[in-house]
Every structure is written in C-alpha cells, then in structure tokens.
Amino acid sequence: MTRQRLSLLTPLALLGLLMGLADISHGSAGEDEDYYMQELLTRDQYNKVQMLEKPMASIPDRHEHPSQNPAKKVPKGKAESNRQTDKTTADTKSVKTANKKAEKNKKSSLKTANSISEEERRYNSIKEECPPMGLETLKIDDFQLHASTTKRYGLGAHRGRLNIQAGLYEDDLYDGAWCAGRDDPLQWFEVDARRLTKFTGVITQGRSSLWSSDWVTSYKVMVSNDSHTWITLKNGSEDLIFRGNREKEIPVQNIFPVPVVARYIRVNPRSWFNSGNICMRVEILGCPMPDPNNYYHRRNEVITTDDLDFRHHSYKEMRQLMKVVNEMCPNITRIYNIGKSYSGLKLYAIEISDNPGEHEVGEPEFRYTAGSHGNEVLGRELLLLLMQFMCLEYLSGNQRIRHLVEETRIHLLPSVNPDGYEKAFEVGSELSGWSLGRWSNDGIDIHHNFPDLNSILWEAEAKKWIPRKMFNHHVPIPEWYQTKNASVAVETRALIAWMEKMPFVLGGNLQGGELVVTFPYDKTRSQWVTREQTPTPDDHVFRWLAFSYASTHRLMTDANQRVCHTEDFAKEDGTINGASWHTAAGSMNDFSFLHTNCFELSMYVGCDKFPHESELPEEWENNRESLLVFMEQVHRGIKGVVRDVQGRGIANAIISVEGISHDIRTAADGDYWRLLNPGEYRVTARAEGYSFTSKKCEVGYEMGATRCDFIIGRTNLSRIKEIMEKFNKQPIKLPVRQLQARRSRERRLGT
Fold first, then answer.
1. What is the DSSP letter of 508?
2. CA distance 751 to 745
3. What is the Cα–Cα distance from 87 to 85, expressed in whole angstroms?
4. Hey, how many other C-beta atoms are within 10 angstroms of the C-beta on 426?
5. Distances in Å between the alpha carbon of 201 and those of 139, 204, 419, 468?
6. Which residues lie across from 147 on neighbouring strands?
7. Cα–Cα distance between 636 and 699 in angstroms, integer?
8. How far apart are the C-alpha atoms of 556 and 421, rounded to whole Å?
9. Which of 9, 581, 588, 715 has the highest CB neighbour number within 10 Å of its CB?
10. Are the beta carbons of 333 and 389 closer than 8 angstroms?
11. Dist. CA 282–CA 161, nearest whole Å
12. Boundaries of CATH 2.60.120.260 in the chain?
C-alpha cells in the first residue's frame, strides 16, 4: 500500500505529550530487596514527581531532546534548565542558527501557548480510548510480536508484554521484557494486529528484574499497513515524542491525540535510563475494525450468552449488586458480613441455599473467597458473576443449579481485602501494575498471614507425640498469635472466626496472575528449601480436586497455551503442589486443612490480575464450568451422622480413615463429611466418653457421597462419672480394671 493511502488512514495529530528527561538515578535492586515493596515505594515517589510536572504534561514537545541520542550526555544542571524552558532549541545545527531563532521563539511563545490550549480543548472532546489488544492476556500470540534486534532469546519480543514477570535468575528463557540487542534510536518493538485496527494509545513498563534497572524514557510511534512503509505519528510537521517510564514497574499510558487506523504498530525508543538499556514491556490500546471475513478474529472470538453485569464494581457497587441478587432471589440468598477491614469496610458474603441462614443436618457447606490480594480483581468479579448466574438459573428452572442449591449451603465472599481493591480500582485495570493494592491497609499479605501450624504438627510427629499428646488434625492456634500485639490483619482474624464457626467441607480461594490450581501443603517440610514436593496425607484427594477445576477450565490444560510468566503448568495438567512451586508459611490453604475440616485450594484464574472490563465476558466463559464443577465435588466421598444409642447427634466426634493419617470431626449436630476418592475404606468413629466403632464404607464413581452413619455407646467409666456428678459427688478416679475387680469382690462378700 502506498504512503498516500496510508496518510488517509492516519490523520495528522495536532497534539503531543511532553517528553520526560532521562535523569532518574535509581540503582540496581539489591538481592535482599522486597520486589513488591520496591514498587510501592517508587510509585509513591513517582506520584509526587508527576504532581510537580503535571502542568507540563499536556504541552506538545516540538523537538527531540539531545539526551535522546545516547552518544550525547546532558549535564544534570543543563537538563534541569531545559526542563523549565519551552524545549524548542534541541537539534540545532549551529549556535548561530539557534541565536537567530531565539528572539522569534520569545515573541511567539504566548501565541503558541494560547493556540495549544485551544487545540487541547478541541481534541480532548473527541479523544477515543480503546481497550487493550491483549499482550498481557495472551490474546496476542508470540508470532504477532517482532523487534528490530534482541539481546538474547529470553529477552525476545515475545517477552515484551505488560506486567510479564521474570524468573529469579537472569540469563534464562523467561526474562522480564523485550531488550534490544543494541542501544540506539533505530530499535523498535512491533505488534501485528492481523487486521485493520484503530490504535488509540500505548502503555509501557520497564524490565521486570531483581538485578537490573532498564526502562525507556521516551519513544515515537509508527504505523503501517504492509510492514514496509511506515508513518510516524506527527504533531504538525514534527514527530510526536511520547513520555516513557521513570522507573521499571509503574505503567505509563499515552493516549494518541487522534486515533490511527493500520494493521501494524511500532514503538521506537528514543531515550532510556542512562544506567540501563533499551528494555520494554508494552500493551497496545486498539479497537479492531469490522471485518467478518477475518480468519484470526473468528478463530479467537469467545461469546457468552449469559445476560450478566460484566463490569468492574467499586465497593459500593459490589454491595448494591449483592443486594439486587438478594432481592431477585430472597428465598435462596442471604447477605451477611464476617467482620470489617482495617479501614472499616464490611467484609460482605452471600449465602445461597434453599434454607438460608441455617445449617441443615447432612448438607455440606462450601465456600469461595476472592480478593485476599486486592489487586487480583478477576476472582472478585467472577464471584459476583457467579451469584448472579446461580440466581437467574435457579429462577429459570435449571435442574443442575437447583440441585446444587437444594443440596449444598454455598457461601461466596467476593472481597477479602476491599481496602486494597479500592486502591487498584482507583488507578484502573491497566495502570495498577503488578502489586498496587496487594496488601491490606496495614501492609499485610492476608493470604499468607495465618499461623504456621505445619511446623507444630511436623515437630509433634518427629517427637512421636501423635496421637498420645496431640491430634493429627484440628491443630490449635498458638497463644502468641492470638495476642493483640501479633502482626495479624483484622481481615485474617475475621476469616479465622468465620472458618471456625461454619462447618466448611470444601473451599476455593480465587487468585490471579497465573493459570494453575495449587493444593497443600504450601510450605516445604525441609528447612531452607524453597521448592520441594510436600504432600498432605490426603494428596490423592487434593490432586483430584485440583484437576476437577483445571480440566474444565478452557485454558489451564491447553498444551498450546503460552505460559503466563515463567512456569509451564500445562505439563502438570494445570495443577501443582504449592510447596513445589514456591514455599509459603502460614497460607490459608494449609491453615484450613490443619485447623478445620475444610479442604482448601487456590485457583489462579488468569494471567492478567486486573483484566480490562471488555475481557470479563470471555474470562467468565473460561471459568464458569470450572466454578460449578468444583462446587459439586463437595458431594464426593462419605457423609453421615454419629449418634448415641438414644439417637442424639454427638458433636466433635473423630472420624478416622484407615491408612490416612488425617482425621476430621463432626459438626454440632453430629453430622460429618469426609472427602475421599472412589474406593473401599475402613472408617472408625470415636468420641470422648464413648466406645469406638468401625465399619467399611465404599465410595463409588458416581456423583453423590456415600451414606455411612455410626451409633456409639457410652463407656462404663463415663457413665459412672456422669452419675457421680449428677449427685454432686466427685467421680471415682480409678482405672477400669481396678473398678471391675472391686465390684467383683463386693459381690462375693454380699455387700
């Protein structure tokens, strides 16, 4: 296609964004530096700089600064001086020419400023912003990304995706950006949209690395229809120079003054951090032009038929949506809160059941939680969509949903960390970076803020205290953890109280940033080992539960799915033992397994922690079936009631399965649920003051737990104690054999 035809598709831009100077002097990150905290600190510093420079940000830059040429170094003093001028003296051919232009520039400066403000007002009203094309979400595949040169394969164009994360070590196949093979202004990063696209903006980051500091401080943008003839975005007769990054993690967005239509787009770095190299992570904002004959578009298109509220919700909007669901389905829903966040926001949950508000004997309780990391937003929205979906489908008579609601008590807690979410929500889906809003308001990672019960159990096992001095389940919380001075988030305390109150059987917490399901243990058993397979006694059950979600997800087990960051989880069927990925003490999953009856897993539901609103329908389709299938697994295994001979349920009775060194306990009414894979098991029920009894219970392959009830009688000693206490006397503290011998002797003597 000719240059003339391209010019018709590319209107001349009348505005530009001011180029930032590359004067930032951040050094390399230290080995012991907390990467997440580094971003928070630099973001705070960055925001202060932006506030100071905000008046300049809207003025178009007419010329390139000499610092864009890596061969020329600008003294710091001169750079400061240039920042305060009109920046119209760069690229001069001689001192004499510059002097001649100086007076003219002074005379026209006021007129130029006035005309710019008028143009800004005119074009701000017609600026149009499109959603991300999908570099971060992987909708843009590796074959659509190209670059002028590459430093090495691990820093190739396929790694130039917004928010992509690097491995712990350099020089591997999974580094954290595209890095050019040479540092000069001739380098470029290219995206092939594979169809005519209306491009409206670019978002950039620096290189994700613990050891290097690399980012681009300014760049040009070029477009093409044939990848041979390129048109640079203009500001009048001058090339537009866009401001880049001031550090490596905080995304910077530039919206084009006027949208441009083309198939290919290039980002051409012009200046970069003076102690680093040309490295970028990029997202392109663009709207595909209508083209029903486009093969690639038809192949990748995912359409949902569910009429749901596909958008991001603020805290107030979330609360309102839950209220709407409750009003639509008042007979099967109930809204309640489990506590408050650090800033006082209530942690709302919704219950879905045919008898909301009460525990029914024999009905298992299930929970989904999301948003323990406030910036991992997709899980939050999926639970809001799930509650809408279940309400609507129940009303429409969907038998699968009706059976699930009538046979299960379901709890959905969409936002464990609303404080963190509000921070990320305020900035927006593409600009929140990788960690803004991750922690609670007092700086705590809620998901890993639970007591480390693994160490307590493993120490007891090593000392052979189990089962004489300590049980292999319901490990008690240490006293120090319950003190007021302990570093425990109020959200964590609320979760623990909720987990202890409700007899949950199965739970899933929705995370983001990856495509994988993890299961306990999350902490390695060997000390000082960061990655090690550490299975629980119920490893086979956990593996099945993880696979039930991953295998029904549209992407998790897809062998053709590109890795999100550094790990290819598809090789493991989209599942992994948490400790073999990375060790983490005090996780919610380990605590739930060791302190309660609940089997808890983590679902990492998407590469993009905070996807654009336009991606929500497709993400819902990716996860909808998985969310339902996993809930149905609560009905796998055995269930029953432990009663005494009078038919009364016995609370806190212990249910043991032969060959599995992890027991569970009955709920307040004596009912229990034990998740098991298909097979034949010898199960024993025991309780304090009662004799134990055992029986064989068989678990089939069909859905639905096998009924396995127990009746146990009181021991003689417990009956005597009860009688003595009834008559206000001290119970006889004699061994059973001595007591029986004494009774026999008394009978012989006739007394």
1. E
2. 9
3. 5
4. 12
5. 17, 10, 30, 67
6. 189
7. 8
8. 25
9. 588
10. no
11. 5
12. 142-290
Q: How far apart are CA 603 and CA 228, in angstroms?
A: 44
Angle formed by the axes of helices 378-396 and 616-632, to 10°?
70
CATH 3.40.630.10 domain range(s) in the chain = 315-635
C-beta of residue 449 within 8 angstroms of C-beta of residue 489: yes
Helix/strand/coil (H/E/C) assignment for every residue in 427-491:
HCCCCCCCCCCCCCCCCCCHHHCCCCHHHHHHHHHHCCCCCCCCCCCCCCCCHHHHCCCCCCCHH
DSSP string spanning 21-51? PS-----PPPTT--HHHHHHHHHHHHHHHHH
Beta bridge partners of 348: 337
The dihedral over CA atoms of 313, 319, 324, 326, expressed in degrees to the nearest 10, equals 130
Q: Which sign, positive or negative, has the C-alpha torsion 737, 739, 743, 749?
A: positive
Tell me if residue 124 falls in helix, strand or coil.
Answer: helix
Helix spans in 166-303 (H)? 295-300
In the three-class reduction of DSSP (H, G, I as helix; E, B as strand; rest coil), residue 521 is classed as coil
Question: Which residue type does 315 have?
Answer: Y
Alpha-carbon span 673 to 532, nearest angstrom: 30
Tell me the two tokens of residue 269. Answer: 């770095």
How confident is the model over 670-703, as pLDDT tens digits? 999 999 999 999 999 999 999 999 999 999 999 8
Burial class (CB in 10 A: 0-12, 13-18, 19+), 559: exposed
Q: What is the pLDDT averaged over residues 324-339?
A: 97
Helical H segments across 294-377, by residue range: 295-300, 315-328
Distance CA 65, CA 89 (A): 9
Element (H, E) at 500: helix 490-501
* pLDDT of 414 above 80: yes
Q: Which amino acid would we find at residue 667? A: A
H/E stretch holding 743 reads helix 736-748
Per-residue b/e over 651-679, b at no fewer than 16 CB within 10 Å? Answer: eebbbbbeebebbbbbbebbbbbbbbeee
Distance CA 624, CA 385 (A): 9
- The domain defined by 647-727 folds into Immunoglobulin-like (2.60.40)
Instruction: Mention every residue, 6+ apart, whose C-beta is less than 8 A from residue 333.
Output: 325, 326, 350, 351, 352, 356, 387, 391
Secondary element (H or E) of residue 219: strand 216-224
What's the CA angle centered on 270, arms 269 and 276, to 5 degrees? 75
Contact 323, 626 (CB under 8 A): no
Query: pLDDT digits over 159-211, tens only?
Result: 999 999 998 777 678 899 999 999 999 999 999 999 999 999 999 999 999 88
| 702: Cβ contacts below 8 Å, ≥ 6 apart | none
Q: How many CA atoms lie within 13 A of 654 on its CB side?
A: 18
What's the CATH fold of domain 315-635?
Aminopeptidase (3.40.630)
- When the pLDDT of each residue in the chain is averaged and rounded to a whole number, the result is 84
Q: Across the strands, what pairs with 205?
A: 281
Per-residue model confidence (pLDDT) at position 294: 64
Residue 368 has φ and ψ, to the nearest 5°, of -120, 135
Output 71 or 652, whichever has higher pLDDT. 652
Q: Which amino acid is at 133?
A: M
For 98-148, how does the pLDDT look when each residue is reduced to its tens digit (9 = 90+)? 444 444 443 333 233 333 344 444 444 345 679 999 999 999 999 999 999
- From the number of C-beta atoms within 10 Å of its C-beta (0-12, 13-18, 19+), residue 735 rates as exposed
The helix (H) or strand (E) run that includes residue 231 is strand 231-232
Beta strand extents in 289-385 (DSSP E only):
333-340, 346-352, 365-370
- CATH topology for 142-290 is Jelly Rolls (2.60.120)
> How distant, in Å, are the alpha carbons of 467, 473, 520 from that of 460?
9, 12, 19
